[in-house]
């Protein structure tokens, strides 16, 4: 098994498993959290994972790591075949740790680099390609298969884990999402306006792409966080998860 995971270029590190309650009788859930950027997915997913002793896997970081590889290799974001080849040749690793997630690309910690604007834009573009998505989905399934995971992204409940135990679709008014992003990044004025415009473009691309567009799964619980605080959203999601666990 370790050999197989290594071949696939993705691993869930041992340290992440240590966070999990290993009592055999307990069913470990697969929890999918999908939604647009700025709806609060990452924060909720990581806080929920912590509460349940689960691993938080951020699927977007994998698209970002591939985008970074494409930038490094000067590959076109429209060249699907080259992007798939780059994915196959790269080692993209997600390391969920107690202090947050680390993303490694070919052994280098790129966690901060992949949040920069050029990578953010590139990730949105590389993620439209069906074959890139196929590669990602296969690896994400591999990582989450054992359960005890909160995986967040855009297509987790629809494509990666259509049989997930719990599916949340976290949404919020676009203006509120943009404001949250501005506050998060502590930006104002013209920069803020262009970042907001980019967020709208990425949103549009996510929702309208032919392959796995961003959409709530039919059986997802839709939570609109426009008027809800982070703690309130977390409380709702945690309650749903505990119900599934029979607690
Ligand atoms: O969640 P994020 O902003 O880190 O995601 C980066 C990009 O990857 C985003 O433009 C959408 C895409 N993505 C995707 O298409 N499917 C996922 N499951 C996760 C992210």
Tell me about this structure.
With 247 residues, this protein is α/β, with parallel strands linked by helices. The chain has one domain (6-236): Rossmann fold. 51% of the residues lie in helices and 15% in strands. The protein contains eleven helices and eight strands. A five-stranded parallel beta sheet has the order 2-6-1-7-8. It has a three-stranded antiparallel beta sheet with strand order 3-4-5. β3 (92-97) and β4 (100-105) form a beta hairpin. α4 crosses α6. The two termini are 32 Å apart. The model is unreliable at 1-10 and 13-23 (pLDDT under 50). 2'-deoxycytidine-5'-monophosphate binds next to α4, α6 and α10.
Summarize the structure.
The protein is α/β, with parallel strands linked by helices. It has eleven helices and eight strands.
Summarize the helices and strands and which ones pair or pack.
Blueprint: H1 2-8, H2 14-18, E1 30-34, H3 41-52, E2 55-58, H4 59-72, H5 80-89, E3 92-97, E4 100-105, E5 108-109, H6 117-126, H7 130-144, E6 149-153, H8 156-160, E7 166-171, H9 174-185, H10 189-208, E8 221-224, H11 230-244
Helix pairs in contact: 3-11, 4-6, 5-7, 6-10, 9-10
What is the β-strand count?
A: 8
- Element-level helix/strand string: HHEHEHHEEEHHEHEHHEH
State the strand order across the main sheet.
Answer: 2-6-1-7-8
**Mean pLDDT figure:** 88
Question: Any guess at the CATH architecture?
Answer: 3-Layer(aba) Sandwich
What structural category do the secondary elements indicate? alpha/beta
Which descriptor suits the 3D outline?
globular
CATH superfamily: P-loop containing nucleotide triphosphate hydrolases
């Amino acid at each position: 098994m370790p050999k197989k995971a290594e071949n696939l270029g993705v691993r869930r590190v041992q340290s992440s498993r240590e966070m999990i309650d290993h009592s055999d009788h307990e069913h470990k859930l697969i929890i999918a959290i999908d939604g647009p950027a700025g709806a609060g997915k990452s924060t909720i997913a990581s806080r929920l994972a912590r509460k349940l002793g689960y691993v938080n896997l951020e699927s977007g970081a994998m698209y970002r790591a591939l985008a970074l590889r494409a930038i490094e290799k000067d590959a076109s974001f429209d060249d699907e075949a080259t992007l798939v080849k780059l994915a196959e040749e790269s080692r993209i690793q997600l390391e969920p740790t107690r202090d947050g997630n680390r993303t490694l690309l070919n052994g280098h910690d790129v966690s901060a680099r992949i949040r920069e604007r050029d990578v953010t834009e590139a990730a949105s573009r590389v993620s439209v390609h069906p074959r890139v998505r196929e590669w990602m989905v296969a690896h994400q399934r591999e990582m989450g298969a054992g359960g005890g995971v909160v995986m967040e992204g855009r297509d987790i409940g629809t494509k990666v884990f259509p049989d997930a135990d719990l599916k949340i679709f976290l949404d919020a008014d676009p203006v509120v999402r943009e404001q949250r992003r501005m506050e998060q990044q502590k930006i104002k004025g013209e920069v803020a306006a262009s970042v907001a415009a980019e967020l709208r473009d990425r949103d549009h691309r996510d929702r309208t792409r032919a392959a796995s567009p961003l959409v709530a799964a039919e059986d997802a619980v839709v939570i609109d966080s426009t008027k809800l605080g982070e703690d309130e959203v977390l409380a709702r999601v945690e309650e749903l998860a505990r119900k599934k666990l029979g607690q």
